[in-house]
Design brief:
By secondary structure, the chain is α/β, with parallel strands linked by helices. The protein is built from twelve helices and nine strands. The longest helix is centred in the N-terminal third of the chain and has 17 residues. The structure holds S-adenosylmethionine.
Length: 308
């Protein structure tokens, strides 16, 4: 696990300070929060997501505490052992900002109102797993973008394959709500056989989409603003790799910082091990995600996501 991720999973900030305990008395809730838990749940999403359409917007601190209590109560009712020490409560509260569910991406996305999300941050399956890639892109991309506010943005990781890149750009260059920039994430630490007649791919493209009224980016320094970023991939030898598709926590943390502020809603319809929504949660954003594979959601749960 990345050092920063490990620190944050332990309920501490990177500087070694304890995260402040959430004070439920400080803020007003947004609507009937206890209802939000089942609304975000797999049943609601799979049964047409009608209820998700009324998703009321960002959770306040009060909401998060109330959801934490409700989930604890339900887990206790199921006979699950619930830890109640302060650190566990702090962790639970922090992780409640990273909520995943088992659902199909398109169905789940339909549950969000238009222009209700600050950041679409996702990493869909690549063309090596999906055929035909063009139909797949058509099935979700514009629908997902319609959920993003005009003050919001999107980062979409895609494979470095010409046909896949063309499939995405064909759709994205045909819309006008977002400007499009192609970024690159490269890595040199995952080896494997090199092809004999072509170059070995060691990068992925990241499509950066900026809403018309999105505020300026907030990179910590000029290096962070370079359109090509080299960062090592999660690595089994360094014990921070839970899945072969997992992306680096560090790049997730960076993009969330650049394009969102505290309390913003970040969604990932292809969350897998939850890297992007966990980074969002650790930065005080609300991370909501889905995946249609129970096995990867177990890993996401082990990493700290709440799966409902
Ligand atoms: C490339 S992985 C995402 C990896 C993730 N960024 C991480 O760091 O762990 C893509 C994920 O999309 C999921 N997926 C594929 N088709 C889906 C669909 N129709 N609905 C929801 N999830 C889907 C897969 O199960 C897989 O976990």
């Amino acid at each position: 696990m990345h050092d920063k991720e490990q620190t944050q999973r332990n309920g501490m900030t990177e500087e070694g300070q304890s995260r402040p305990a959430t004070d439920g008395a400080q803020a007003e809730g947004t609507g009937n929060v206890i209802d939000i838990v089942p609304r975000l749940g797999a049943q609601a999403a799979l049964s047409g997501a009608g209820d998700l359409r009324t998703y009321p917007g960002p959770f306040s601190e009060t909401d998060i505490v109330r959801i934490a209590r409700e989930i604890k109560r339900r887990k206790a009712a199921e006979g699950a052992k619930v830890r109640v020490d302060t650190l566990a409560a702090q962790r639970m509260t922090a992780h409640l900002r990273a909520i995943g569910t088992n659902a199909d991406a398109v169905t789940w996305l339909n549950g969000f109102s238009d222009a209700s999300v600050d950041l679409l941050f996702t990493d869909p399956p690549y063309s090596t797993y999906i055929e035909p890639i063009e139909a797949f892109v058509d099935s979700w991309l514009l629908s997902a973008l319609s959920k993003v506010k005009d003050t919001g943005s999107a980062y979409i990781f895609i494979g470095a394959y010409p046909r896949e890149i063309a499939a995405y750009l064909n759709v994205l260059l045909g819309q006008t709500a977002f400007t499009v920039q192609t970024l690159v994430w490269s890595y040199k630490n995952t080896l494997g056989p090199a092809p004999s007649h072509s170059y070995k791919n060691n990068y992925q493209m990241v499509l950066f989409l900026r809403g018309k009224n999105a505020p300026r980016l907030q990179p910590a320094n000029l290096l962070e603003q370079f359109s090509s970023q080299e960062m090592r991939a999660p690595d089994g030898r360094l014990k921070d790799r839970f899945h072969s598709w997992q992306k680096p926590y560090k790049i997730a943390d960076m993009f969330v910082r650049h394009s969102t502020t505290q309390g913003d809603i970040v969604i990932d319809p292809f969350m897998c091990t939850g890297t992007f929504i966990l980074a969002a949660a650790d930065l005080g954003r609300i991370g909501l995600g889905c995946d249609n594979d129970d096995e990867v959601l177990k890993t996401a749960e082990e990493r700290g996501c709440i799966i409902v």
